[in-house]
Each structure stands twice: as structure tokens, then as C-alpha cells.
Amino acid sequence: MIRIENVELHRVRLPLVHEFQTSSHAKRSLEHILVMLRSADGVVGWGEIASPSGPFYSAETVESCWAVARSFLAPIVLRTSWEHPSELAAAMAKVRGNHFARAGLDVAAWALWSSLQGVSLASALGGERARVSAGVSLGIEPTIDALLEQVGARVAEGYQRVKLKIAPGWDVAPVRAVRSAFPDLPLHVDANGAFDVSDISVFSALDELGLLMIEQPFAPRALVAHATLQSSISTPVCLDESVEDVEDLVTALRLRAGRILNIKVSRMGGLTFAVRAHDLARASGVPVWCGGMHEFGIGRAANVALSALPGFTLPSDVSGSDKYYARDVTTSPIVCVDGFVDVPSSPGLGWEPDLDFIAAHATDRVALPA
Which of 53, 116, 196, 351 is found 20 to 30 A from 38 (Cα to Cα)? Predict the structure, then answer.
């Protein structure tokens, strides 16, 4: 049985190399919570709580995750003995919701457990690939010319798919411009739920631009609206915010609310539940890809490992560290070469945390038990 003797939480802030604008807000820097678990025999696992700072993508924030992880999840972790990470995930699931907070500790448990087993995190999860195809996500730019410049730079770097954020007023025109400039580029759009059913003409126009998918056009709980849209356009609808757990996915599949699933480790409460969503989607014939939350290197490493599973047939948001950060929290950055990221074969997470760099950029730290 594995028993965790120490939990450390580190709030770390890093500047972004390029401002990122979505339909709801702009980001110039990010603060995430890094999680360290140490077992009774001294083995360490790291995870990342990659929640947004504000309650725009989800109800969770850095502040709420800090409070929940410190006051509720860490005590559960410290008093639970387990043989497999899924058992610890089940214990933490007693805390309802709070998927981002739970995800960070779940990833740390998987990293620790795979180290104990002497296998890579990807192998522990059931991964089969030695490298994964990488896409990249681009925010809303001040002008269409600026957007075209960003797309051109990412294409030159070899990324195999480009995702464009859209919002009311920034939708058909910029996407049409990108499609005109890059006619063969695998391209998709992400609305983060900013539209409603009155905007059907927008999606009818986007349907003509040869997109891979239209991601999360409507609000998270609007599954019937997504199903209605999917039945009226040929472009696959991809669900993101609508699927926080496997039960949501069951409902979405029954309603035929989309034909593609974005699996985010953070949104789904960790690797345990992300793997279950992958398994169900694969059994149902639904392609999946791994979405990102601008994770630092630790959370990004978990995404790389997850993307090695066989059902991830579309390029995932596992772009190189340099796309977002001048320097990452790991001793070596995650690198994308010719559109691919190598999957580590060494035991555990595959990338080591840079403890001095983390300490230098931490805004707060707590160790439990004190």
C-alpha cells in the first residue's frame, strides 16, 4: 500500500511570451499551483493545478483551488492508503466538483505510482505512441493581419493543426482570411461557448470553410442546442466545457451533441477520469484529442503522456514550452520538432521540475502536514 506523508502546494506565476485573448478575457501571465506528493518511502510525484485565475472558463480559480486543495484534498490524500491512483481519485471524488483542484493531485499520484512501477507515465496510462502530433491554439488578435502573422509563424514551426479562438464579431471574417491564406492547413475554431442558437448563420458560414471541427459553440449545459447544430451542419461539433465527467459524455453521446471530444486532464478531474473518457469515446467511435490550459511543463508532460493513448487520433494541444513561456518550470523544456513531441520512456513524468526556478517564481507555498 502507498501512503503519502507530505503534500506541498506551490503557487507559481510566469509571464506569457505573447498575450492570449479568448472570447471572455485576455491573459498576459499565468499563475498555476504545482503539487508535490512524497510517499512514506521517499518517492516523489509532481502534478499541476492549471486553473484559470478568473471564473470565465469554469467556476474554479487559482484562489478556490488553493483553498480546496489545502483544506480538503490534501487531508484526504494524507489519510488514504492506496495501491493504484484510481483508488486515491475515488477518495478525492468525495469533494464534489473542483475538477481542476483534484486533477493536480491525481496527476501527482500517477507520476509517483509510475515511478514506483519503473514505467513511464504514458505506459502506465496505456499509451502506445513514441511521439504525439502537436497542434497549437491561437488567441484573438487585434487585427486579421496580426492573426495571419501568428498562423504563418506556427505553420513554419511545423504544427500540424491550428486552432483559432472566435467570438461574436470575430468569427467568419478572420477564419475566412486564414483559410484563404492557408488553403490546405488543418484548421478548427473554438468559441468557448460565446454564441447562442440565434447565431446559426455564423456556423452555416463557417461550415463552408473546410474546418476540422467547431469547438464548444454554445454554453456548457446547452447539449440540446449542440445536437441541433450538429444535425444542421457537416462540420463536426467538438465538445469541451460541456463534458466535465464521464456521465456528461454519456449524455452527449445519447443526444448526438457532437462528433469529436476534447479531453482536458484539468477539466475532467485528472488522468484517472480522462482515461475513462478516452475509453468510452473510443468504444463509441468518437475521435478525441487532448486540449490544454496553457499548462506549465508539469501539466504539459501529463498531456503528452495522455496523448499517447490509441484513441487520440487528432493533433493535441501539446505545443512546445517556448510557444507560451520564455522558460518553463522543468529543467528541460518540452520541445516540438516538425509537428511532433516525443513521449518520454523513462519512469515517471518524464521531465524533472526545476526546484530553484519554481522557488524563485513562487507567490506562495504550503507544506502539509505543517
Answer: 53
- pLDDT value, residue 115: 97
264 classed as catalytic: yes
Tell me the fold of 123-342: TIM Barrel (3.20.20)
Catalytic hit among 94, 163, 264, 323: 264
* Beta-carbon contacts of residue 249 (< 8 Å; ≥ 6 apart): 243, 261, 277, 280, 281
| Residue 27, CB-side half-sphere exposure with 13 Å CA sphere | 25
Question: Looking at residues 135-139, what average pLDDT do you find?
Answer: 89
Is 27 catalytic? The answer is no
In CATH terms, 2-117+354-368 corresponds, of 3.30.420.270, 3.40.50.720, 2.60.120.260, 3.30.390.10, to 3.30.390.10
- pLDDT of 54 reads 87
Q: What is the percent of the chain with per-residue pLDDT over 90, rounded to a whole number?
A: 87
Q: Which residue is catalytic, options 27, 163, 165, 323?
A: 165
Q: Three cell numbers at 62? A: 487559482
